[in-house]
Amino acid sequence: MARSPDVANEVLAYCTSCKMDLQHVVVAMKGDRIAKVQCKTCKKEHAFKAPKGATEPTKKSAKKGGKKADEGASGASPIEAEWEKLMTTHKAAPMKSYSMKGRFQLGDKLNHPNFGEGIVGKLIYPNKIEVIFKNDLKVLIHSGTAS
Predict the structure, then answer these.
(1) Higher pLDDT, residue 64 or 123
(2) How many domains is the chain partitioned into structurally?
(3) CB neighbours of residue 49 within 10 Å
(4) Is 82 helix (H, G, I), strand (E, B) or coil?
(5) CA pseudo-torsion sign 18, 22, 78, 29
């Protein structure tokens, strides 16, 4: 039986600043509902907004176990759905091998040795990229833009 999230647990939520579904940390609860969250990407606090396409958080305690605890859930997660959509949209783009010394742009497909295939969803100035993998979002380092 799934239990409701607690303060300091991670949840997937829509970030009003980044304008994406991202990992957040629960900051405040109102009864058994999430009231406030902090985005792990931009660090801004805001009222909880369910991920796009969802009305309530569906994997309330899935992240506790660490790795892929949410695979048995019904349907694809919002991250997986976004990954599939982007990979289909950019299917003609070549797959690049990830390296910290590599240079990546928005929409580049990459193959990471640990996380697998992903696509660059956001550039974070000056030398970071947010990559959407099938089951997770990761912020990675790259060589950045030319100076």
Answers:
(1) 123
(2) 2
(3) 14
(4) helix
(5) negative
